Amino acid sequence: MNSTKNNNENNFDVAVIxxxxxxxxxxxxxxxxxxxxxxxxxxxxxxxxxxxxxKGRCNITNAEFNLRKLVENYGKNGPFLFHAFSVxxxxxxxxxxxxxxxxxxxERGNRVFPVxxxxxxxxxxxxxxxxxxxxxxMYGTKVNTVNFKNNHITGITIxxxxxxxxxxxxxxIFCTGGKSYASTGSTGDGFVWxxxxxxxxxxx
Length: 204
What we know:
Elements lengths: L10 E7 L3 H12 L4 E4 L20 E2 L4 H6 L5 H10 L2 H10 L4 E4 L3 E4 L4 H14 L3 E3 L3 E8 L2 E9 L2 E12 L14 H8 L8
Parallel strand pairs: 1-2, 1-9, 2-6
Antiparallel strand pairs: 3-5, 4-5, 7-8, 8-9
């Protein structure tokens, strides 16, 4: 059994758990603000679920720029998303990818795809953005435990090819997804940690 190691290299401003779209965008945004950021993911590559969306073409967003109409598509939960879309909605998403070098197109139903029809290209562009922002990435890394004290996270322990290690950060962002596609890494771990922090979790 390996002993747990920790050093200054594993101390960050922001630790993001999960390298899906949410985790990648969270990391990019934090890094743009000057934070020292690390992403931890149990997979060996980012965007595991992203590459299978849209039958491998990646339906990036919906080109409905009237936000009130957009949130109506989400039913009774739509109003909850209104603020988020007003800050970073479909227009901003399209602009982000276009500026990053990904050409997009709009198809039937306002669906936005990469011109290449290749979800892998979307992942490559996002990976390039992470590299440009100097985000540290630990793939093949499993979070064994999240340590709490007084409803605050004091650190996490991880396991990867280097053995057991401790990672600490000033802020933690959990982007672990739901429990819908276990083979891509969405196994519901985030719900367990959220419950330990005092959040109420509805039955999945």
